[in-house]
Amino acid sequence: MVVTRPGGEQGKEVIDGYGKPATFYQMQDNGKPVEGHASQMHYELAKDFVVLTGNAYLQQVDSNIKGDKITYLVKRAENAGFQRQRQARNHRSGAVAAAGQKQQRPDPGTEEG
Question: Looking at the record's lineage, which domain of life comes first (predicted)?
Fold first, then answer.
């Protein structure tokens, strides 16, 4: 794990984690956990988001999402749920996970994005 503080300012830390896999766990304000793993993680404290890259997986209560890259919006993590913005079946998918929105599943015969 590498922690940097751009401009030396507290509260603007950037955390990069690497592993096989690197893991992420957070207890939300509503008491429900969110956890994930990926080959690499990038968390920006000031912007409140984490990016999971490389065989990425994120689970929140009974919902989960996986793909090559997932962006999790931490500030909006008060409510359960995910919104999948884009997922291609060839594992070159990009996804944005935001709380408060139900995950949408594409028709198995089509590709999104």
Answer: Bacteria
pLDDT at 90 over 70: no
- The widest CA-to-CA distance across the chain, in whole angstroms, is 50
Domain positions in the chain are: 2-97
What pLDDT does 77 receive? 59
In sequence order, what are the beta bridge partners of 40?
18, 53
Q: Torsion angle of alpha carbons 88, 92, 96, 99, nearest 10°? A: 70
Distance CA 7, CA 36 (A): 29
Question: Residue 78 above 70 pLDDT?
Answer: no
∠ CA 12-16-19, nearest 5°, is: 160
- Residue 83 is classified by DSSP as -
Identify the CATH class of 2-97: mainly beta
- The predicted pLDDT at position 60 comes to 86
Burial of 45 (0-12, 13-18, 19+ CB in 10 A): middle
